[in-house]
Amino acid sequence: MASKGRLLWGLARAKVEFPLVFFYCTVFFLAGFYGSLLFSLGFSGGRVPRGRLLEVDKEASDLPGMPYGETGESRPSSVTFQVLSWKPRAVYFPKFATEEECQNIIKVARSSLEPSTLALREGETGENTKGIRTSSGTFISASEDSTGILDQVERKISRVTMIPRENMESFNVLRYEIGQRYASHYDAFNPAEYGPQQSHRVATFLLYLTDVEEGGETIFPYENGLNMDIGYDYEKCIGLKVKPRQGDGLLFYSMFTNHTIDPLSLHGSCPVIKGVKWVAAKWIRDQMQGNST
Ligand SMILES: *[C@@H]1O[C@H](CO)[C@@H](O)[C@H](O)[C@H]1NC(C)=O
């Protein structure tokens, strides 16, 4: 009896304090819920195993969405990335495209390959710049690819950079065979050397379409200010090296946010030693590209 009495007494007291208890419970529940949500958000990038990266869009749909605007997306998605360097700004996207997408891009480009050309400075000719860029390549716009794959890839590049597709040049699909390379250079054209420019290449996205057994790395010889004072030979393969892997993407900026050329964005493609390197380059400009893309 006594215990029942205490129980009743306890209940009565609980009743009095119920609103307060309810309040605390709610606070702790919400804290736990959102806390764990933040936790999973923060670490999901590193946890996704490489083989499953293609499905990240699906996984991310577990995350609660936000009301979105007319041009927005209905749900969150995640894209895995790794910052390779801030000097220059270079970020890497493992498994940006699928194996099948890469193979199809090669198939579309293969028949129209021609020797790659260079933008020439004053005094430079095709003859005296021979050997600087020895790949073959072709420009293909997303709309020219009837498979729709380049359209998909371009859309994704636009999403991760948040730069409109109108600012992008056509894809330059390139093939480097054994011994072929691109000596170190800048993608942004310095008006002092190349004359007035209508617009600037501010960033470059490279999509590697094949694995390369040996060689063919994208290099940043001046990464973090290194090698700038050694009279660097533009043909040497030194500095930060990015090994091509099929489907992986690399984005780097050639210009600072204040719109001057980043001297550390100097980059090149090492000679292929074994295998063949296919890559799709996408130059991103500060001005819209009209209908040429
Ligand atoms: C532009 O920004 C870079 C990097 O922050 C800086 O080193 C450079 O001096 C700036 N140039 C001008 C002209 O403001």
TrEMBL record:
Keywords: Dioxygenase, Glycoprotein, Iron, Membrane, Metal-binding, Oxidoreductase, Signal-anchor, Transmembrane, Transmembrane helix. It catalyses: L-prolyl-[collagen] + 2-oxoglutarate + O2 = trans-4-hydroxy-L-prolyl-[collagen] + succinate + CO2. One of its GO terms (cellular component) is endoplasmic reticulum membrane. Pfam families: 2OG-FeII_Oxy_3. The keyword Acetylation does not apply. Gene3D superfamilies: q2cbj1_9rhob like domain. Residues 167-286 form the Fe2OG dioxygenase domain. It is a single-pass type II membrane protein. PROSITE patterns: FE2OG_OXY. Its cofactor is L-ascorbate. Its EC number is 1.14.11.2. GO terms for molecular function: iron ion binding; L-ascorbic acid binding; procollagen-proline 4-dioxygenase activity. Belongs to the P4HA family. This is procollagen-proline 4-dioxygenase. It comes from Elaeis guineensis var. tenera. The gene is LOC105058036.
